[in-house]
Design goal:
Rossmann fold; 3 domains; 48% helix; alpha/beta; Alpha-Beta Plaits; 7-stranded mixed beta sheet
Length: 410
């Protein structure tokens, strides 16, 4: 009913969606940044208005190829063609078109017929480029159908309860009391995860400012769990980024021991420090990788090493649907080379008897299992394969992740 009201009465909101889509598909802006820009320009919007604009924009990006094809739009976008695509989405989502000059030339019956026709073709129905559909089928075989469909669904919002400050059940209670967020659930296979039935702006809550949680997908949380850390250990998170997994490791270590967080981007490490302060984590030291010496100085020093390496990001298309239009086969090949370079040089930071987790947020075996097989073939008897796990969106209703646990022998 809320969406129907906005579609019928608020062409202004549709214009905002139009602006965000132009930024994404004409200017190459990432979807989250394009939506942030629209929100900043409309600070007086309430929560429902913001949710409407964000949800519709992401839905259109997810289904972009189906919408464009059904609208008969090819080639470079014009304002007129973009309005055609927007109108096609409204029909696709089952809503009557608002009375507006922008949709005057749209034939609803023809659009419905086209949507039905092209929904029979997988690569168009799930809106992926030809090359990606071929690659997914090549690497995943028959399971590609289910995986791709799951990757094209809306993601849920999942929080990681900061076990230094609270528990998942206590976090549920705190959110319910503070924001009346009662529709939450626990995830059996992810110990610290709290799932929200409906997305909310949780960053404004007192619980967030008190460091009771971080927003982190349930499968992502399992990467730190898999490293099997303990209080007092010396742990290195070598591709730490803004520190989601670093902070989880600190909580699992009960804030005892030492974590060295490495990344090539100093800006991300500065964000990590802010998050650590909020979470009351004080065992993290950050170091920017500005030369090979940073890694060499840490040789044979870590009880545990986390390599959450750069990857295609194909496991998180639910959250970043625009990336399938920015990604290229050449980029995937490039990150595969980087993955091998990181495995080959960073693994020396683990001391004999220590363990390492190699992880990617990709659904491709060529970025996961095959990379680990390559590494083990290169290092001979110096490393032992302990085990591996893969989280699939169609099975776990979470992001796609791969993780392997390896032990250094000598």
């Amino acid at each position: 009913m809320i969406k129907r009201f906005y579609l019928k009465h608020h062409i202004f909101h549709i214009k905002a969606i139009f602006t965000a889509l132009k930024d994404v598909f004409e200017n190459g802006v990432f979807a989250d940044k394009a939506i942030e820009k629209v929100m900043r320009a409309n600070k007086k919007w309430d929560v429902k208005e913001r949710s409407f604009v964000s949800d519709v924009t992401y839905d259109m990006i997810r289904n972009w190829r189906l919408l464009c094809t059904s609208a008969g739009v090819e080639g470079k976008l014009s304002d007129k063609s973009l309005w055609m695509i927007l109108g096609t989405y409204l029909v696709f989502d089952g809503y009557d078109l608002p009375e507006s000059e922008y949709f005057g030339n749209l034939n609803e019956k023809k659009v419905i017929s086209q949507l039905e026709k092209f929904s029979r073709i997988r690569k168009i129905r799930e809106s992926v480029p030809d090359w990606l559909d071929l690659l997914g089928e090549k690497e995943l075989g028959k399971s590609w159908d289910k995986t791709l469909r799951a990757l094209n669904q809306r993601p849920s919002m999942v929080l990681r309860a900061n076990s230094l400050r609270t528990s998942p059940k206590e976090l549920q209670k705190a959110l319910e009391e503070e924001e009346n967020i009662a529709e939450t659930s626990l995830i059996v296979w992810s110990p610290d995860a709290v799932e929200l039935k409906y997305p909310r702006n949780v960053f404004r809550t007192e619980a967030f400012h008190q460091g009771l949680f971080e927003v982190q997908d349930a499968a992502s949380q399992m990467v730190s769990e898999y490293l099997n850390v303990a209080p007092g250990m010396r742990v290195i998170d070598a591709c730490a980024g803004a520190g989601g997994k670093t902070l989880h490791l600190a909580a699992l270590m009960k804030n005892k021991g030492r974590i060295i967080a490495l990344d090539t981007k100093e800006k991300k490490l500065l964000e990590l420090k802010k998050r650590a302060t909020r979470a009351e984590v004080n065992i993290v030291e950050t170091r920017t990788i500005d030369s090979s010496k940073v890694v060499k100085r840490l040789k044979d020093s870590a009880d545990r090493l986390l390599l959450d390496v750069p990857c295609s990001g194909l496991g998180v298309l639910r959250r970043n649907p625009d990336s399938k239009w920015k990604l290229t086969p050449e980029e995937i090949e490039r990150v595969k080379k980087i993955q091998r370079e990181i495995l080959g040089s960073f693994s020396d930071m683990v001391k004999p008897g220590g363990k390492m987790v190699y992880a990617t947020c990709s659904i491709l075996p060529s970025e996961g299992e095959e990379q680990v097989k390559w590494f083990l073939s290169e290092v001979g008897d110096r490393w032992n394969f302990v085990g591996e796990k893969r989280y699939l969106p169609e099975v776990h209703h979470a992001d796609g992740f791969y993780m392997a646990l390896l032990e250094r022998i000598k």
